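Before the break, one more example. Copy the sequence into your notebook; we will annotate it together after we see the structure.
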Amino acid sequence: MYYKYIFFFILLGEILSLNSIVNANIFWGFTKKNPLILQEVLLLFQYVLLSLFFEKLLSRSSYSKKIIKLLIFSFFLQLTLLAIAFFTNTDIKPSFISTFFLLIFCLFYVKDLMANKPTLILLKSSAFWITMGVFFYSCISFPIKTMIVFIPRSQEYLNLRSQIFSILNMSLIVLYLFIIKSYLCLKHQQN
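Here is what the structure looks like once it is written out:
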């Protein structure tokens, strides 16, 4: 079933949170690049898990093969941007690629949902709630991660960067709330 991907997604989210806490409170040696690179790598693995979730969810549709092809392409594209960001010390967030492709995967789900007969009760569908949570998170985080490079890293913009990071975290909290709702729907189906 597709829920195993969500379980590992949540575990990686906990590791990401620990990385953020450690990043804020502990000196990492010569550079702060290490925790930021670790963050982007963990986000890449989270993206792979969500992509596999969508592939499994849409395994009976024509979108399944498209998801795998887009996953492979975006994985290497994101790794390339990660290497560029690491070696050139630019402030790009390679994870903006994953949020863009997650939006496409959500679109695939909705198109597949609209193409089939309306037999699914959306309020009781666990897959629907996860997809809507991913859609909400991606809609918020894609523009933020894309435009963060245009905000200078100087001291006077530190407050703005912090507020933007808070918006990103709030959208992630909404995603986790939707995951909880999807689990409750799944548990309700079993009872």
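Helices lie at 3-25, 33-57, 63-88, 95-115, 126-147, 158-190. The chain has a mean pLDDT of 86. Try to locate both features in your own notes.
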